Amino acid sequence: MQGCTPNMKLYSLCLTGALILLIVYACFYSESIRPVLHDIGIIDRKSDRFHDNGANSTCGLLLLRTLSSHHPSKTRNKILPQGLLYKKPSVVSGRTDVVSVAPWMAPIVWEGGFDSVVLDSIYEQMNITVATTVFALGKYVAFLKDFLETAEKHYMVGYKVDYYIFTDRPGDIPNVTLAEGRRVRVLKVPSSNRWQEISARRMEMIQLLIENTIRGQADYIFCLDVDSKFHAHFGVEVLGRLVATIHPGYYATDRGSLPYERRPESRAYIPWGEGDFYYGGAVFGGLLEDVRAMTETCRRNFEADTANGIEAAWQEESHLNRYFTYNKPSKLLSPEYLWQDIHGWSKDVKIIRFSGVAKNYADFRPN
Ligand code: UD2
Question: Strand, coil or helix: what is 337?
Answer without folding.
Answer: helix
